[in-house]
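user: At home tonight, take the chain set out below, taking as long as you need, and be ready to discuss the fold:
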Amino acid sequence: MALLRSYKKLTNPNLVPLSKSLSPSSSSNLEHHHSIPTFQLTQIPYGFPKIHTSASHTDAETICKVLSNTRDSTVDASLRNVPVTASPELVVEVLNRLSNAGVLALSFFRWAEKQEGFKHTTESFHALIEALGKIRQFKMIWSLVDDMNRRKLLTGNTFSFVARRYTRAKKVDEAVETFEKMEKYGLKPQVLDFNRLIDVLCKSKFVEKAQEVFDKMRQLGLTPDIKSYTILLEGWSQQQNLLRVDEVCREMKDEGFELDVVAYCIIINAYCKAKKYDEAIGFYHEMQAKGTRPSPHIYSTLISGLGSDKRLHEALEFFEKSKASGFAPDAPTYNAVVGAYCHSMQIDDAYRMVDEMKKHGIGPNSRTCDIILHHLIKARRIEQACLVFERMSDEWGCEPTLSTYEIMVRMFCNEERLDAAMAVWDQMKAKGLLPGINMFSMLIIALCHENKLDEASKYFQQMLDAGIRPPSKMFSTFKYALINSGMENTALYFALKIDKLRKSPLVAWHK
C-alpha cells in the first residue's frame, strides 16, 4: 500500500468515504452484520520456540487463513477439508500465532487432539497456557496442568509459564502459590525453579517480591547460584534502584562470585537508565582493567545511553571501539547508533547507518524502523514517517511487526486521520497479525471522539469475537458515545455481549 499517497488523499475531507451504517434500532441487524468475526494472527511471543521448518510454516499459514474467518464453535467444520496433517511442530506454531486469541487457540487445540495419530506435547500445552493466560482463564489453565500431569508431560517450566501469566495479570500472590503447588504434583522445587520464579517476578516489575523469594530460597537450604544473583541484579536494575544494585553486587562478591560480563552489562545498563553515564563509563573501564572483555551488548547500551543524552560524539567513539573489538557487526549495535543519530535529529546519518546495515547483511530490521519512526513522529514529521513505513518493505526488505503497526495507528489517531489509521489496520489484518487490547482501545476511543460510531462498533465487535474483554474505562467511553448519539439499542447489545462473555467461562478440557 502506498501509504504516503493514501495519507495525502485522505487529508482531503471531500474524499473521505462514507461509513457503512449499523442499525441503532435493531440488535438482530447488528448481530447479522458481524456474524463473521475477523481474527488477525500474532507473532510468536518471546519464550516460545520458533518453528523453522518451511512445510510447517506454510501449513500453519494455511490453517490460520482459514481460522481468520471462523467462529471457535465451527473450527472442526472449517478445518475438515484443509489438506494438512497435524504434527507437534505445526500445532505449536499455529497456537503461537493464535496467542492473542485464546478462545480460538483452545478450539484449535481440541481439534488437533482429535486428529488420528496426533498427541499433544509439553510445548503445545505451554503455547495454549500462554494464550489462555492472556484472557485470564486460570481455571482452565489449571485443568490443563492436571491433564499434563496425567499424560506425564508436566515439567518445572510449566509452572513458570503459569506464574508469568499470573504476574502479568498482577496476581503476584497467585504466582508464588503456583510454585508452592509443585510438590503437590510430585516435583520438588530446586534452585532452577526458584530462579524461574524470581525471573518472572522481576520481569513483571515485582522486584520486592522477587527479593522475598530469593531470601526464602536460602531459608529452605538452597544456595543461590550466579544465575540467581544475576536475575535479581537485573530486576533492581530495571527499577533503577542503584542502591540495591550495589548491595547485590557486594553480596555476590561476599559469596565468592566474581562479576562477569553479564553482570557488568546489567550494571552499566542500570546506570545508563538512571542517566548516570559517567559512572557507567567508569564500570566499562573497570571491567577492562580486570581483563573482562566487553560484549557487543555493553557497547550498544553505552551508545544508546549516550546518544539519548545527545552526547553523540562520545556515542560514536564507543561505536568505533565496538568495531575495533573484533566482534562481527550486529543489528543491536547499529540500531543503537541509529537511535543516537535520531536523538540529535540527524536523520540522514541514521539512513546512512541503515545502508551500512544492508551492506553488512545484518538488517535493517523492524526495530531499526521503529526507532526512526518514533523520532520522526515525536518531531511531527508525519510525511517522513509514512515514507519510512513504505521503505520498510519496498526498499529495506524488513516487514513491519505488530509494534510497527501500533506506532503508525497511534500516529494517525493522534493526528485525527482515522481513515488512514484504519487503512494501516487493514494492511496489518492482511498480514495476519492480531492486535491486543491496547491497540483495539486506542482505535475505538479515537473513533468515538470523532463520532465515527459505526466504525467503532465494527472494531469493538472484532475485539469481542477475539475473546478480548474490554477494560471498563474503555467500554464506558464507547457506551456513552453510543447513548449520546441516540444508539441506545447498540449500547445495550454490546453490554449484553460483554455480560455474556463475563459469565461464560471456557468449558474445561477433558481428554
About this structure: The first helix runs from residue 3 to 10.
